[in-house]
């Protein structure tokens, strides 16, 4: 057996890939017909989701499980690893089992966090294609988004330098776009802080319209959000046409439909709309589709990926980004609201390491060795940090879903520390299981698999946190109080004015609320650990994603374009020039 204590993740993946299933066999074993598989070489493929859903429309769904976590350290607590491990463990107990995760962004892959394929003996493979572009979905999102920016900036230029007669001859009418109110920005799939704010259009009149602009990361794009929540090609097309790019000089929205670019944007996305099919290291199917961050976007893999998997599997495990206050809250109140799907169980991944941090342990800094407090037994720190776990258990229970706490086992964890976590989880009304999937794969996650199976057999009473009729500020305050633990909410004058406009517009009443907030704290302040109390959530802006159908309140100082660190991962990624294989990914 491969030993993850001695081998880097990319070396383990490389070895496992020697014996992985071909994509045609993987699909056939899962019940996908030849005509429904769109191969991309020997080990990757896309699935024609519409064909599968039509063929299996009368088949009942399997059990639906979401994997979330406590508030993580900056290193992450192994949520993707747990998702892969749980799929592998369930497959040893039950029949057809599948997983769904997001496609990794190039930003984290080449920066600090890595590619999110899992780790140790619980990974999604093949690792290199997974990490480096896969089948081009993020490129398609980037191109579709930037095509809208090309359309609006070109229109600004042509309206500025041409007469109404000139425009009319080309079938155009003047949109009178306000160059100071172009709300969309360009996107790129890297962490490029120097592009956050830019000036474009420098030069002569044929070089564009000079204006302030900037970049966000591709996975924060509204186009990516739409890829996560669309339910049919017609739905995708309609949502793309509703995207607001800018406002005119009277304050009226200018959409992609107004710019006549919505059809071309959708054309970029047709191929990308089909989920990608990969596998665990033990040969179970994994759907990889969409890649929105959870702290600045919706944080879910696609609805269509889950819909397909639930028809083909007895148990399907999907993952939502970051902690239960971020990814799970959006899974609960956005993804399930749009899809109509009702989960049977939620797994909350916890580590002794993260609980020690929440108990007052030293700061955890990526790239620097962990303090001895994290590698030596310290039950007192764990006990103090349990409050963070309890907050996430309460959040899951408010949804009516049965929670299972997974203690993602590290070799430095002591029996006493693990016992504290188990006791606290069970006292709070959750099942608890210790899992060693990183070290042992599916065999190491059998206790977790059994706990999840038991939880899925119990009746759940799933319910949304808020109804469509609740005004946007009341929703924000409910999320802030019941999920984050805030005493209240404050608004900048700009955010308050936007909220008033939104609340007065009946067309936005059914929009879901997609919070933008740090993932490193239950609060808006990444420095506040544990379970902060006596604080107010500051909302500095409220965005509208008209196509996705989201109201997007922005809390604190979080940015839509992350920055690259001083010691990024790309320094250690290279290619073996003899074999062509990529090394150094994690």
Automatic annotation (TrEMBL):
Recorded superkingdom: Bacteria
GO molecular function annotations of the record: ATP binding; formate-tetrahydrofolate ligase activity
PROSITE patterns cross-referenced by the UniProt entry: FTHFS_1, FTHFS_2
Pathway the protein contributes to: One-carbon metabolism; tetrahydrofolate interconversion
UniProt cross-references to Gene3D superfamilies, sorted A to Z: Domain 2, N(10)-formyltetrahydrofolate synthetase, Formyltetrahydrofolate synthetase, domain 3, P-loop containing nucleotide triphosphate hydrolases
Enzyme Commission number(s): 6.3.4.3
A biological process from GO: tetrahydrofolate interconversion
Keyword Chaperone among record annotations: no
Keywords: ATP-binding, Ligase, Nucleotide-binding, One-carbon metabolism
Pfam families membership: FTHFS (PF01268)
Binding-site positions, ATP: 73-80
Catalysed reactions listed for this entry: (6S)-5,6,7,8-tetrahydrofolate + formate + ATP = (6R)-10-formyltetrahydrofolate + ADP + phosphate
Name of the top EC class for this enzyme: ligase
Stated family: Belongs to the formate--tetrahydrofolate ligase family.
Identification of the protein by name: Formate--tetrahydrofolate ligase
Organism expressing this protein natively: Dehalogenimonas sp. 4OHTPN
